[in-house]
Write a structure and sequence with these properties.
24% strand, Ribosomal Protein L15, Chain: K, domain 2, 3-stranded parallel β-sheet, single chain, alpha/beta, elongated
């Protein structure tokens, strides 16, 4: 049996964040002037968890102004939102939580 199979597997485990993607065409359901943030997107069922990372992409059209707060925007999405008379606000990403707890320290 090769040595690589006999050595125990431990060490670094990479946990990548799940990024929820929302196109601006789906934001048309919100009323003009509404504040669209991760909590509002989760309340209407567009994303499963409001604590996750949300990125807005530019597919679709937006005809009325909205105040959109998200962790990331594509250039075209930001341009469409501003062109419609809305505002773009980037919010800080949530703190990363590794497999051993916050900061990679084992709890307990």
């Amino acid at each position: 049996m090769p040595l690589v199979y006999r050595i125990p597997k431990r060490g670094f485990t990479h946990v990548s964040p799940v990024v929820e993607i929302v196109n601006i065409g789906r934001l048309a359901r919100f009323a003009a002037g509404a504040v669209v943030d991760p909590a509002a997107l989760a309340a209407c069922g567009m994303i499963p968890d409001p604590a996750g990372v949300v990125k807005i992409l530019g597919a679709g059209t937006l005809t009325h102004p909205l105040v959109v707060k998200a962790h990331g925007f594509s250039r075209s999405a930001a341009a469409h939102i501003v062109q419609a008379g809305g505002e773009v606000h980037r919010i800080a990403p949530p703190p990363s939580r590794g497999p051993k707890g916050p900061g990679g320290v084992t709890e307990g």
